[in-house]
Amino acid sequence: MAGETRSLKTCRCLPVRPMLVAARHQSKAFLTTDNRTKSLVWEARGAIMTSPYAGLPPPKWEAVTRHLIDIHPLAPSEIVDVVLLTWKSIFESRMGTQGFRIGVDIFPKPQVMGFLLHELVPLELASRHPRVWRAERTPADKDLVHIPDDSFSVEIKTSSNPSRIFGNRSYAQSGNSAKKAKDGYYLAVNFGKFTGKTRRPPILRIRFGWLDSTDWIGQKAATGQQSRLAKDVENFKLLQLYPKS
């Protein structure tokens, strides 16, 4: 099946190979789906993994993304529920000997709010499904690890930008020295900032989908520490779950 690309637009129920692989050393490697169990089966023997979007123009990416979301064990409704519940819990939690509260007594910078959301979402899912999900434990782990099948593990990106997400510079660097794979499922959450009038900023946007390592674009400046995504990638590879459009 190497080299085959099949459109997912006509039917989301067809068994397809959402990921294609360029094999080397005459080995076979591919990602398949089983519609009955919604599981991914990854077989790789000395192969180079390539994108499930390989050979497709941007307008056709959305159909691929919808299929990848459909076969993922997490339902979009649960993703939204967990993110919103976790965000709410951040403001309702009490800290210190006097029970200080975020949004009442302290107003953390966006980096701190993003960190809390980033760390608490995996813990919430692990508490709901202890044999299925867990938080990151090793440098090679994704942020949210799917215990039965690591192919479904998820990277989490948070941002106080109203609509976009960013990675650090390493996301745009090629090579095999990375501690964790940058290809795979991503959960992207955008949230508001504290202002003089806003003491409980809202979750602005929740998206879910699949990104390839080559999607990340590094800053041109040698001192730049950030990477971004092209608009087509943000629009067609990360689909909006909240608010519903």
Question: Your description of this structure?
Answer:
- It is built from four helices and 15 strands.
- By secondary structure, it is an alpha+beta fold.
- It folds into two domains: 50 residues, no CATH class; 167 residues, ECO RV Endonuclease, Chain A (3-Layer(aba) Sandwich).
- The N terminus is likely disordered.
- The chain is globular and about 60 Å long.
- The strands form six sheets. Strands 9-11-12-15 form a four-stranded mixed sheet. Strands 10-14-13 form a three-stranded antiparallel sheet.
- Helices cover 21% and strands 26% of the residues.
Features:
245 residues, alpha+beta, ECO RV Endonuclease, Chain A, three-stranded antiparallel sheet
The ordered H/E elements are: EEEEHHEEHEEEEEEEEHE
The CATH topology of the largest domain turns out to be ECO RV Endonuclease, Chain A
Low-confidence stretches: 1-48
Give the overall average pLDDT: 81
Distance between the termini: 37 Å
**Widest β-sheet, arrangement of strands:** 9-11-12-15
Query: Strand content of the residues, in percent?
Result: 25-35%
CATH class group of the largest domain: Alpha Beta
What's the number of helices? Answer: 4
